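Milestone M4 deliverable, item 7.
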Amino acid sequence: MPASASTTLRGELTSQWSNPSDILSLLLIIGPDVVQGAVAQLSGSLITPVCFSFGWVAYAFTTAAALAGSGTLMPETDVPCKVINTRSGYVRDNRSWLVGRVLRDCEPVLDREALCIKVYDCLDETARQTSLVFGFKDAIWWVSVVIVLAQLAISAIPWAVYGDWSILLITGAGTLLALITGALPQWKAEKFACRKNSKKIVAITPGNGSRFVMVVRGNGHTMDIEDLASIQSPKLGYVWDGCGYFTKLVSSDVGTNMVITSGKPGIGDRSTTSQRRRKAIMLKRLPLDFCFTRLICTTLALCWVALLISTSSLKKHSWYLVLVGGMGMVQNALVSAVARDAKTRGFHLHEAKDLRGEKAMNVLMDLERFIPGVAPSLRDEFFPGKLREDEESWWAGDRDKYDTVRFNGSKGDSVSAIVETVTIDKVA
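Output delivered:
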């Protein structure tokens, strides 16, 4: 290789590594799925501290395209599972990202156990106040805020040292666009699209062949998990009731009372009890909030393109922006995958019982003794075929003979023989 060519190559490499501005424009268009997962994790309140990072440009265009089609912002569930109404026996495949993550994060570490069933009670309003830690804001939320501030501080170094404020401008603009995206009310509308104050007893499990089931007793204090599992389109007006920016107060009838006017029971006038609630404002059969989300996301996509063009024009101090973007990418990746407490997802759960054993049928029988009427729907899921004669007799009500054998160990260890169950006073 001629000396001049070698010198030219060395100079180009030195220039690129000293100021890698060209690669920045490419880095900004990778990793949109990670950004979406991070926003889904932290969304639910007005401030969603997802850091400015590589991947936001691609994510902005992906979101704009999705809103033009299905209209959804939330990612699809990454934990396939089933939601079973234990009273009706109705089984539905879960499509909710939120429900899948709750199941994943509650799953215990198992050893020899064939099946583990955890029973949870949902806390009432009084007990819920003691379990809340800054609402949705746990340690992950606060660490994310610190990283956002650290990004801004690092981007300000070239301004303070060299008088170059371009890095701070790009970082500040990217952070602002990210915060606006997370503040869109559609995140909350989609994430918690269900009826509230459910009294259902619901089981969540990956299904036959899995080793974990969580049973949730609503007690009238939680979201309807069956509703969540089916997910609702944000194009429907009732999804936005009470959580959108563009809503109106309306009166709805909640019951009818008899007012006695004649002194005789059953004879009198009827009065209707009403309550006021916020209902979504519609625009050409679409919620105005949904139209607003489409407009904002399209505008944000254009703003990200402008930021991408601005980034490609950097001539010096690019390593500061690489560091800022790298910090944001690490934060996005960790936040999108990290396990969180169920209360940060809107489920304020109190563990009431931990049932586990080396024989799945025995664990289901223990569950039936603990909450009568709940286990048959799970039995049909885990044992869809014909049961043995002694098992049939047990489920038919003749339990003494089979229990005597299984508690002695010849039918497989019972739950009480393997672990010490945790029992907490029922919250109802």
